[in-house]
Amino acid sequence: MINELGWNKVLQEEWETLALPEWTIGRVITLSHDLFKVMTNNGEWIGSLPGSYNYDATFDYPAVGDWVAIEQLPGESRGMIRHVMKRRSQFVRHGAGLETKAQVVASNIDFAFLIMSCNDDFNIRRLERYLVSAWDSGAQPVVVLTKSDLIDEQMRLDMELKVNEAAFGVSLIFVSNQTGEGISDLQELVQPNFTAALLGSSGVGKSTLVNSLLNADKMKTNTIRKDDSKGKHTTTHRELIVLPSGGIVVDTPGMRELHLWSRDESDGVSKSFSDIESLFSSCKFNDCRHQTEPGCAVKAALEEGTPSQSRYNSYLKLQKELAYVKKKEAEKAHLLEKKKKQTVYTRRNRN
C-alpha cells in the first residue's frame, strides 16, 4: 500500500533508524481540524496528536504528503501520531492572519504545478510570487495555464512571452479540460511514485484538472461564472490522490493570497530573478544600490527595457516582504527565548 504512495529505499533506511515496534508508517493524505487521515499498509487510519503537543511539540506539525509514525489504538482504525519523518521538500507560505507563522501547504512533492487560467486570472506578478515559493520548496516548478480553449493564437503567444520572461527555463504547459490539450503532458511528468502539488487561486480549474488526470469525476467542480470568468471554488481541503498511472497529486484549496515565508536557506528570489541579480556583478561599484550610482548595470538594463521596470519593482517588493517576515520571525524567537528564561527563573525562585 505505502509503496504506491512513494515509499522508497531512502525512506526505508531512515525509518529503520528511528522506528519503535509499536509504530506503523503511513502517509498523510488529508487533514481537518487536527485530525489526519493516514494511509498505512493496514488501510486508512485517523490520526491525532498527543495531548502534550501544544506545549511540548517534539516534531513538526503534520502536513498533507508527510510520512508519519503512528501508534495504533487497540482494536481501532485510529492512532496517535508520534513522529514526522524528514521532509525532502515542502511548499510553505506565511499563515493567514497577523501572526508570524509558517503553513506547510504540501510536503514531499517532486513538482509544484503553478496553475493559472487563461482568462482573467492570468497575472504575471502573482506567478513571480508563486515561483519564489516553489523554488524555495525544493520541488521543480511547472507553469500550467488552464482553459486554453478560451483564447486565440495571438493571446497564447502573448502569454508565452510573458511567462518566459518571468519563468525562464521553467516548463510551460497549456491545458484544456474541454479539448484534452496538455493532459498527457502532465501525466508524463507525474510518473509512478512521483508527487505533484496543484497550486493556484480559486476557480482556475485545479479540481477539474484532477478529474481529467483521473479520468473520473472524483472531485466536485462547478462551471465558470459568467460575471467574472472564474470557476466556482469547490475544493475545501488538501487531499493526496493516487492516479491510475501510479503518479500522485495533491489538490489544494484556492489561495486568495500567497504571502511569502522566509528561511535562512531561502534562494527562491535569486532563482526567480536570476536575470536581474546576474547584472549586479557588472555594476561599476561592488556596493551599488542601483539607484543614482554611475555605471550601474541594472539602471542601464532598465533603460533598455530588459528587464521591464514592472518586473524590477516586483523583485524589490518581494525582497522587502521577505526581509520583513525574517525580521518578525527573529523578534518572535527573541520573545520566546526571553519568556523561556523568565519561566526558568521563576521555577528556581519557587524552589
UniProtKB/TrEMBL annotation:
The record's section on HAMAP family has: GTPase_RsgA
Name the species this protein comes from.
Answer: Alkalibacterium pelagium
Q: Where in the cell is it found?
A: Cytoplasm
A GO cellular component annotation here is: cytoplasm
Summarize the protein's role: One of several proteins that assist in the late maturation steps of the functional core of the 30S ribosomal subunit. Helps release RbfA from mature subunits. May play a role in the assembly of ribosomal proteins into the subunit. Circularly permuted GTPase that catalyzes slow GTP hydrolysis, GTPase activity is stimulated by the 30S ribosomal subunit.
The processes (GO biological process) annotated in the record are: ribosomal small subunit biogenesis
Record's subunit section = Monomer. Associates with 30S ribosomal subunit, binds 16S rRNA.
* Amino acids binding Zn(2+): C283, C288, H290, C296
Name the Enzyme Commission number(s) assigned to this protein.
3.6.1.-
Q: Which residues form the signal peptide?
A: none
Top EC class per UniProt? hydrolase
Record's protein name? Small ribosomal subunit biogenesis GTPase RsgA
Q: Which residues form the CP-type G domain?
A: 98-258
Q: Cross-referenced SUPFAM superfamilies, in alphabetical order?
A: P-loop containing nucleoside triphosphate hydrolases (SSF52540)
Please provide, alphabetically and separated by semicolons, the GO molecular function terms listed in this UniProt record.
Answer: GTP binding; GTPase activity; metal ion binding; rRNA binding
User: NCBIfam families per the record?
Assistant: ribosome small subunit-dependent GTPase A (TIGR00157)
